[in-house]
């Protein structure tokens, strides 16, 4: 497979009155052609800032990109001029936002918003753009496409608006689609429709997708690879199977345990929450950012940032437990690593 | 036999939305809530689950129907009794940011109910505030701070402390966790479960996160466009959902297990219709994969199909209608 996107050592800070917020620190990852990569994390973990930086959408100031490269098809996007970047954005790389109401223009017909992309990027005539836009509306499963073309966003329901957003993003058949919490604002039955649609489009036009979400269920059902972020850093990255069946980072364990298991019935199990709250990113801890909330924190965790330990090919975890020198860690990893073994945490 | 704390009979709540149109947010719903249980209420946005919860708690004036609390009709109570019932029913709201007055310190927010019902004053009031803060996992010194100094999870704890302040018996929790992060959600759910034990509470738990509702509830009611579609114990509902809507709803939940080999997902076509002009007969028929002729003609009856498992669907009343 060939690399589509490569992010290296990305660091983004925000200047505020209270000081500099270190929103993204040392983030490196890649996306291959045609794969679905999920980025999971809680609010403030830096997942949205990361992808907005990739898209060049982050406002500077207040943001300061203090390190890193974003290579898209081998070109460094950071060095491109605004004009050059505009050519990439929207045609080769596009984005779907969380809130479909505020990301559509309420004074423009839906159809025109889709056609606009085609006119700008593909130099189509108005009539051609209209035809293609109607095709796109059909593609994302909105019935009565011709009629819908001339309607305004307020005439669409939430799920329909999100479909319209997706059709705008896909109008130029981009290589990469970035979806920032595309289903968070939607009801479950509508979420199921949108996720089916995205998977379907991936197979139809072979678009790579970066899916940002906080819902591990969505991850398990759609993604192929997962990146777990916490406090602006990547904690663990691996294939979907490994994240659920062989996770190696205590934060990942915590995430998996704090959601109720709906497949098992009867006997009420107690949820195991992650105690405490995420660290203050004005002055993040010098050691592992998760150490203050981690049940297995050792002395070294507080004093020194763990490196990315390679567990397997394509599976890394930023946790000292994976260092061969840490005593007793093997047992913990063995017990906890099997994924959702709740009994492990009760003893 | 379990004791009924609340009995809701043919409850209706309509809203006028102008131009002579009305939205039937809660349309003819009857169910019981037993003492000491957690009753979960699920449904998509616009299904009327919050309206139902708030109407039961008395924050909306009902259009029609009866609510019995300890076998006494709420609308036929004298004022004195009503005040006591109001104290015994409390609410925890969805938005931990919007539901706390930003100009009041946390101690006063918590004590609002105490003051209104004149339960304690002076030193006793102060002690009660500290006790409540500790009960919900906060510290006494937090009483002097303002809401903006707290995180979302902590604010939700403050909201819970406020509800507990007046020794309630019944709490309506209206989407108490949907504004919180996953790892914080579990903290709040555990807190609610602990308090239920220690304070002897009964919950009406409203949420759209079906996994959490299953986890916390003893019984679950499923709502769609103002109607109750199905009601069963949470295990029964998840093991054997009877109503086609419940089946679709449950199959739409993404499961956090990539090797999960469950049944094919039922993806519903289309969106929920407008509640201003709902479909005739069964309200789900426009999206139902099993819709029959009868569904557009008659509203399905609320029927106990299995012991303690109620459903409103023509599929289960065929014999009576004379259709096979």
From TrEMBL, chain A:
Location of this chain's protein in the cell: Cell membrane
Organismal lineage: Bacteria, Bacillati, Bacillota, Bacilli, Bacillales
Key words, A-Z: ATP-binding, Cell membrane, Membrane, Nucleotide-binding, Transport
Similarity section: Belongs to the ABC transporter superfamily.
InterPro entries noted in UniProt: AAA+_ATPase, ABC_Ni/Peptide_Import, ABC_transporter-like_ATP-bd, ABC_transporter-like_CS, Oligopep_ABC_C, P-loop_NTPase
Keyword Cell membrane: yes
Record protein name field: ABC transporter ATP-binding protein
Ranges for domain ABC transporter: 5-256
SMART domains xrefs: AAA
From TrEMBL, chain B:
Coiled-coil ranges from the UniProt annotation: none
Domain of life: Bacteria
One Pfam family in the UniProt entry: oligo_HPY
ABC transporter domain segment(s): 6-250
Organism: Sporosarcina highlanderae
PROSITE patterns named in the record: ABC_TRANSPORTER_1, ABC_TRANSPORTER_2
InterPro entries linked to this entry: AAA+_ATPase, ABC_transp_ATP-bind, ABC_transporter-like_ATP-bd, ABC_transporter-like_CS, Oligopep_ABC_C, P-loop_NTPase
The name this protein goes by in its record: ABC transporter ATP-binding protein
Molecular function per GO: ATP binding
Record family assignment: Belongs to the ABC transporter superfamily.
Tagged with keyword Repressor: no
Keywords linked to the UniProt accession: ATP-binding, Nucleotide-binding, Transport
